[in-house]
Amino acid sequence: MITPYQKADVSFKFKEEIGLEGRNSKVYLAHDEHLDHEIVIKQVEQKSIEPDEFFQEARLLYASAHSNIVQICYAAKDDNNIYIAMPFYSNGSLSSLMAKKHLTSREIIRYAVQFLSGLNHIHSKGLMHFDIKPNNIMLSDRDEALLSDFGLSAIIDADGFSAISKFYTTHVPPEIFSQNRFNFTYDIYQSGMTLYRMAVGDEFFKNAADTFFSDTDKDRLHASFARGDFPPKTYPVHIHPTLVKIINKCLHPNPNDRYQSVLSIINDLAKISDGCLDWRLVNEDDNGKILWIKPVDGANLHLTLDPESNTTDCRKVYSDGKSRKLSSHCVDVTSNKVMYRLMKS
Questions:
Q1: Where exactly does CATH 3.30.200.20 map onto the chain?
Q2: Which residues of the chain are in CATH 1.10.510.10 domains?
């Protein structure tokens, strides 16, 4: 006798829309009545996908259990939509964090090792993500980076390649315009682009993207993209030089010259243990002066660069608001290397 699957109801109430995933899907903060807890619901219109693909993303998430991958609570459907329920993380995404502040090199390295560990896990299962970007990296309640959104993910074939159904322009590698099958170096490029955005800040990245992709001559744009002209390989002076080399290798326009495995990236990131790691770029004031802050000995070092005169001012600022000028760090700056050595010291 064949026993039919048991069907039961889920009950949740949408509270607010927290992200627009795509043309036929949306993301909501919701309250689950049975769990009496806040969850995140991704709603996908059934008419937008084939019946066999209804629960493909949910199945991939469930099969990819890892401490650095967002887990699934349950999947359900009604007459119109598919619903994928996931935990709600009050810390938001890497993108929301970057909107609040610039990241230090140490923070970039830590978050990178975490989400790349999740990516390495799914690669070991023969799965490509195809959509790695700050919006798709959540921050857990323990402030750990978790890879999410498997909506574009696909299984590789016996030769280690897979095809992609759609893509987002600013995060695709140059070979997107000349190939229709891709290997793991596609995900590695997108990981490098994510690290690049973490290093330079989203405002700089968006301005660079708007300028580059405003070129209406497609042939010229594609040729420039193929040369690796985007993104511009310029970084804030406080970003660790080894980290810069790692990011640039991930972003190499030739897939064969990129890292060939995620584990190799993790290993190189883990070797960075000294140097300028804790300076945070804060802002540029109305006079064009640039401020970095670094915590030290229960206080904060405030290092200000005046690009017009190429001079620095450095002060140790205490919690009570008092400060002491550090004459040893008030110098003439002749190059970025001099500035970095100053920060390192």
A1: 12-87
A2: 94-270
211-240 in b/e form (b: 16+ CB < 10 A) is: ebeeeeeeeebeeebeebebbeeebbbbbb
Residue appearing with tokens 């500035």: 339
Residues 6+ apart with CB under 8 A from 183: 156, 160, 161, 162, 255
Domain 94-270 carries which CATH code? 1.10.510.10
Per-residue pLDDT of the chain (345 residues; tens, 9 = 90+): 566 778 888 999 999 998 654 556 788 999 999 889 999 998 988 876 665 676 777 777 777 789 999 988 888 888 888 898 989 999 999 999 999 999 999 999 999 999 999 999 999 999 999 999 999 999 999 999 999 988 888 889 999 999 987 776 688 999 998 888 999 999 999 999 999 999 999 899 999 999 988 888 888 888 898 899 999 999 999 999 999 999 999 999 999 999 999 999 999 999 998 888 999 999 877 778 999 999 998 899 999 999 889 999 999 999 998 999 988 888 898 888 889 989 988
CA angle 85, 8, 2 (to 5 degrees): 120
Q: Residue holding tokens 């629960």?
A: 55
270 SS3 class = helix
Q: How far apart are CA 78 and CA 76, in angstroms?
A: 7
**Which CATH superfamily includes the segment(s) 12-87?**
Phosphorylase Kinase; domain 1 (3.30.200.20)
